[in-house]
Amino acid sequence: MSGLSIQNLSMRFDLPGGGHVQALQDVSLDLKEGELLSVLGPSGCGKTTLLNIVAGFLAPTDGKMILNGHEITGPDAERGMVFQQGALFEWMSVRENVGFGPSMKGMPKTDKAEIVDHLLDVVGLQDFKEKAVYELSGGMQQRVALARCLANDPDVILMDEPLGALDALTREKMQSLVLKLWKETGKTIILITHSVDEALLLGERVIVMAPRPGRIHKEYRLPFAEMGVGADLRDVKKHPDFSAKREEILGMIWAMEEEIMGRTEAAT
Amino acid sequence: MIPFLIYVAIFVVAFFLVTKIAQRSAISDYGSLKTVTFGDESAVTPNRAASVISILTIFLLWGMFTGSTLLPRFLHAPGPFQGEASFEYTAQAGNERDSATVTVVVHPIDTPTDAPEVDPGDGWAKNDSVAIGMWRSGLLRVDRNDELGRGEGAEVIEINGEKVQPGDTVNVGWGTVTISDKGTPNIQPAKGWQMEPIWLPSPEAVVVRIGEIASEGFRGSTLWEHLGYSLFRVVVGFFFGALVGIPLGYAMGLSNWFRGWFDPIVEFMRPVPPLALIPLVIIWAGIGETGKIILLFLAALWIMAIAARSGVSGVKISKVHAAYSLGASKTQIMRHVIVPNSLPEIFTGARVAMGVCWGTVVAAELVAAEQGAGMMIMVASKFQNTDIVIMGIILIGIIGFGIDMLMRWAERLLVPWKGKG
Question: What pLDDT is stored for residue B28 in this prediction?
């Protein structure tokens, strides 16, 4: 069976002073190959924990994950990860960063150069090939991070707020790029985001998570990602359904945030 | 005090002159358009004119107060009296008074001069003569050639016509004459404001001495051998310190056991100044090369271990995670992520360690050594060779500065990503 299956995942952190935090409780999710999933939720709902577990950086206290028929036990090149920022290797040039995965596998130089060249074309950084990554702007750095992840040809791409630190204009361009890459490569993508707009634009499926304990609150299947491929994302945003869904989800998250606030206020 | 006042005066005058000239030739770069400069650190750049004047001022003051031949005479501070002078004394024995002249020759210290022959003159008090070195003073038993001496109750009652008692001082124009408690005139020619070479030699004397020692050597070794020995010790000690310290730091950064085991040792040894280890190292290893190198090894070891440890701890976890999810193995992560990520920290540590080692080697050589820059100035100071001491200090400073520049240059070249992560 291909695709990613997350089964009854729970994560409990014990606190040093006694007590514990239930970061995730009984999260189940099935992703087909090539699906684009956005995960949305108020802070503290366990989005990043979920992603770290899927990436294999954390072992869940309960439940398991099956990818293409085998269980996930640790980090692996089959699951690529794009971080918010600062995960590029600043001691390497753009070319070396993108070629990192193939180098680690011991791929022959010519094959590697071909892959790197192709991906730099895709993300539009061919002219910056030999530059040091710290000489690039924030948006360019994230394009390098995307290319680096793709160079390894992973089955699943995990994105942890990859566009979170970018300015609004760059962010919009990057959103188009992510859609384009998704369509062209057919990768399964899980994207964590804080922005409702981004989740709607870049999510074939959107799950909204609720905090304390972290769990899936609601799931949507949306047409906007398909609409956005090759189109102007501003036109997608003008769609009446888009604003309706946006309001609905925002209201939901606001209600959760207020509930948390109320609970902490009551507690204090 | 006077040199300090002159220094302050030059500082103030130069400031007003330079700022006035700078205003006239108003530069209009971006910085000059800033209206807020007080408190804006980026608007403060070193004024190069001030740096040049500052260095020149130090040499100017040095030259002024040592009577340097590099300066025109009118810039010299008043020098000590030199040449021939005289004063008259009047002695009284009972009711008999008589006067005589004392001729004083003040000569440079390094050219011994005999007291000149003088005509004894009339009366029972005879003329005297004495030779005194510059900056020195001399007691003169004026009655030793007189017909009536101390034994006959003769005593000096007047100097140049001024009545004196034991303890009084008379200014004779070119110096002072003080009557000692026993009635002997103590002649003190004016010292002027210049420093005696034994305290502070003139700049050209130091330069000449550098040339001399560079060509003839000092204590059986040439100047380059002395400096070379010091540098050699630093380099070898630092090399072994880094060789052991860096892997130790990596191990402490990567393993609980290593960190637990070595933390108490490193944290205890780090605040111990290497200088405090000198006596122990001398007891254990003697004053030869081994002892010096062990000392410098210990000086560099802890610094390098801590630098490597913090280099490893400083790696962003997202970089390590990224490398793992790109398929890197542990060895590959070590080689391609942890080591390059820690290099900037290690270079900073190396710069500190080299500085500490250079200071420590000089101190260790001051204590005991056969060769070395520190030994050179220590031995010179015992023989009052102030010019060699100053030369040594200058050379030690230049080399220390050079080491730091070299390390910075290597850092720029080898870890250009420093601070860019």
Answer: 60
Is the domain of B50 the same as that of B97?
no
Can you name the residues that pair with A30 across neighbouring β-strands? A5
Tell me how close the Cα of A205 comes to any Cα of chain B, in angstroms: 24
Taking an 8 Å cut-off on Cβ atoms, the answer to whether B318 and A87 are in contact is yes
- Of the residues B321, B326, B332, B411, the best mutation for testing chain A's interface (the one with the most A CB atoms within 10 Å of its CB) is B326
Q: Which residues of chain B have pLDDT under 50?
A: none
Assess whether pLDDT exceeds 80 at residue A10: yes
B121 and B60, same structural domain? no
Q: Given this model, what pLDDT does residue A98 score? A: 92
B70 and B159 inside one domain: no
For residue B200, tell me if it sits in a domain: no
Q: Between chains, do B343 and A55 touch, taking CB under 8 Å as contact? A: no
Number of domains chain B is built from: 3
Same domain, B102 and B181: yes
Q: B163 lies in which domain range?
A: 83-189
Read off the pLDDT of residues B302-318 as tens digits, 9 standing for 90 and up. Answer: 999 999 999 999 899 99
Substitution target from B319, B325, B420 for chain A, most A beta carbons within 10 A:
B325
Tokens 């990520």 belong to which residue? B341
**Rounded Cα–Cα distance for residues B364 and B219 (Å):** 18
Query: Is the residue at B218 inside a domain?
Result: yes
Residue pairs spanning A and B at CB distance below 8 A? 76
User: Are residue B55 and residue B172 in the same domain, yes or no?
Assistant: no
CA distances from A208 to A39, A193, A220, B118 (A): 6, 10, 8, 117
> What are the Cα distances from residue B194, in Å, to B65, B134, B389?
4, 11, 19
pLDDT band (50, 70, 90) for residue A216:
confident
Q: In what order do the strands lie in the sheet with A20-31?
A: A20-31, A4-14, A62-67, A70-71
**Domain annotation covers residue B199:** no
pTM of the predicted structure, to 2 decimals = 0.82
